[in-house]
Amino acid sequence: MDTSFHSMNNLFAQLGLPDDDASIESFIRQHRFSDNSIRLNEASFWNEAQARFLCEAIQEDSDWAETVDQLNAQLRH
After folding, report:
1. What is the model's pLDDT at position 14?
2. What is the overall mean pLDDT for the chain?
3. Spatial CA neighbour of 38 closest among 48, 57, 51
C-alpha cells in the first residue's frame, strides 16, 4: 500500500499550475465556487487533462485523493 502524502503544492505542480503558496492562495480566491452543485472536475477553469486527473484521483481513491478533497473543500469554503 502506498502511503505517500501529497501536499497542496505537489498537487498544483501535478496539475501544471504555479505551486508556490501565494499562487495557490490566489487560485483558490479567484476560483471559489458560486454553485456548490458543480463537481470539482467539472469546473470550467480546468483543462481536459486536469479534469481527468482530478476525477480519477477520487474515483480510484488514489494517493492524491486526500489532497484533491482538500482542494475541493477550500474552493467551496
Report:
1. 97
2. 94
3. 51
* C-beta of residue 63 within 8 angstroms of C-beta of residue 6: yes
Distances (CA, A) of 3 to 15, 33, 36, 64: 20, 30, 30, 10
Digit-coded pLDDT (tens) for 67-76: 999 999 999 9
CA distance 21 to 40: 20
In this predicted model, which residue has the larger pLDDT, 3 or 72?
72
- Do 55 and 47 contact (CB within 8 A), yes or no? no
Cβ neighbours for 36, distance < 8 A, ≥ 6 positions apart: 76
No. of H helices and E strands in the chain?
4, 0
For 65-76, b where at least 16 C-beta lie within 10 A, e where not — what string?
Answer: bebbeebbebbe
